[in-house]
Amino acid sequence: MFSSGLIERPVSWVALAGFMGTGKSRIGWELSRALALHFVDTDKLITRVVGKTIPEVFAQEGEGYFRACEHEVVHRVTRLEHAVISLGGGTFIQEDNRRQLLERGPVVVLWATPETVYQRTKHSDRPLLRVEDPLSTIRSMMNEREPVYRQGTIHVHSDGRPSEEIVEEIIERLWAWADAQHAWAAQGEGTAGGDHRAAD
Ligand SMILES: Nc1ncnc2c1ncn2[C@@H]1O[C@H](COP(=O)(O)OP(=O)(O)OP(=O)(O)O)[C@@H](O)[C@H]1O
Ligand SMILES: O=C(O)C1=C[C@@H](O)[C@@H](O)[C@H](O)C1
Ligand SMILES: [Mg+2]
């Protein structure tokens, strides 16, 4: 990782997307440590700026207000350097957010089965899962969102795997992605998707 005092990483900016409970916050934090990058969790940033928990924002201001905050936060985090960004579960679903994120750099989508998501979220306070039958809601929301999450750059499964293994796979896949970007750029074709290799 370290050479001549420089940190070699596949990327200096990456976002994590995916359904609720797939591990974006936890894996994003661990990935940021592994790559020596700053860490921003968009849900936590909104909570801090608004001064309310996400359930309070949904209940008092409405989901539309929360989505507007997300949009504003995407605008800001795509301007950051040296950062791992963990998105909220719905952030990548909004078309304009998705476009801005994909233009900025690779978006790693984490996946898990509805059963895993249910187990990981059942004692938490995600407002969209405060329903009578959360597992059915998870299944139908996931079905609906799946084609959109598929538009991410790299896809990694998180079911039944320790976080270290997931982080390791993400880093390997990011190197492969960066190498492919580099090869295409060298052929003079140029591609969207942010920086190719990052050393600093
Ligand atoms: N690979 C894993 N194995 C076991 N537990 C995990 C794994 N990844 C995440 N978790 C746990 O699952 C729960 C949900 O994870 P996390 O909060 O990171 O999900 P998220 O994708 O950020 O969800 P949201 O979209 O709601 O923010 C947490 O308690 C976390 O510690
Ligand atoms: O999937 C979603 O729409 C959400 C996921 C969470 O990260 C929070 O952003 C919020 O609970 C909404
Ligand atoms: Mg999260």
Automatic annotation (TrEMBL):
EC number(s) from the headed UniProt entry: 2.7.1.71
GO cellular component: cytosol
UniProt cross-references to InterPro entries, sorted A to Z: P-loop_NTPase, Shikimate/glucono_kinase, Shikimate_kinase/TSH1, Shikimate_kinase_CS
Entry-linked Pfam families: SKI
Associated pathway: Metabolic intermediate biosynthesis; chorismate biosynthesis; chorismate from D-erythrose 4-phosphate and phosphoenolpyruvate: step 5/7
Top-level EC class: transferase
Record's cofactor remark: Binds 1 Mg(2+) ion per subunit.
Compartment(s) of residence: Cytoplasm
Co-factor(s): Mg(2+)
Binding site for Mg(2+): S25
Domain of life of the source: Bacteria
Keywords tagged on the record: Amino-acid biosynthesis, Aromatic amino acid biosynthesis, ATP-binding, Cytoplasm, Kinase, Magnesium, Metal-binding, Nucleotide-binding, Transferase
GO BP annotations, alphabetical order: amino acid biosynthetic process; aromatic amino acid family biosynthetic process; chorismate biosynthetic process
Primary location group: cytoplasm
A GO molecular-function descriptor: shikimate kinase activity
Role this protein plays: Catalyzes the specific phosphorylation of the 3-hydroxyl group of shikimic acid using ATP as a cosubstrate.
Assembly notes: Monomer.
Name used for this protein in its record: Shikimate kinase
